[in-house]
Amino acid sequence: MAVIIIYGIIKKTPIFDVFIEGARDGLTTVYKVLPSLLALLVAVGMFRSSGALDMIVYALSPAARFLGLPKEILPLALMRPVSGSGALAIFKDLINTSGADSTAGRIAAVMMGSSETTFYAIAVYYGSIGITKTRHTVPAALAGDLAGLIGSAIAVKLLF
Predict the structure, then answer these.
(1) How far apart are CA 90 and CA 84, in angstroms?
(2) Are 142 and 118 in contact (CB under 8 A)?
(3) CA-CA distance, 99 to 77, in Å (whole number)?
(4) Quick one: angle between helices 84-98 and 103-114, nearest 10?
(5) SS3 for 55?
(6) Mean residue pLDDT across the chain
């Protein structure tokens, strides 16, 4: 902080005025992004509470079994692109029930570090600059999330 203040003094920049302007711009960004984030949070809450996540996991279990993936990681794989906090709650439950040293626990841990909350990031970054048409962003990001899931499983199988 001292370096920034000293640099501002050397450049004869009105430091406090620039700070206030940045804070004002930050609030404007929050104002633009808040509706998207609120809609995303409500949708995630409804998705988890409705039992839709459990139904999708049940439907995908045979495919996961065929690929050699533990079915315990499916809820995490489905929630991770949508909600970081929802994924963290599922991850915590998975670690508590399966254990950190289990195959499912290890795959989940690697997956948490190798994937992104895709829809949250799109809502924040695109919402802040007013982009409404995401074009290829969502399919490409979801392909990256799928690659993270598959790569996590392969890495755990090879290393443990």
Answers:
(1) 10
(2) yes
(3) 17
(4) 160
(5) helix
(6) 88
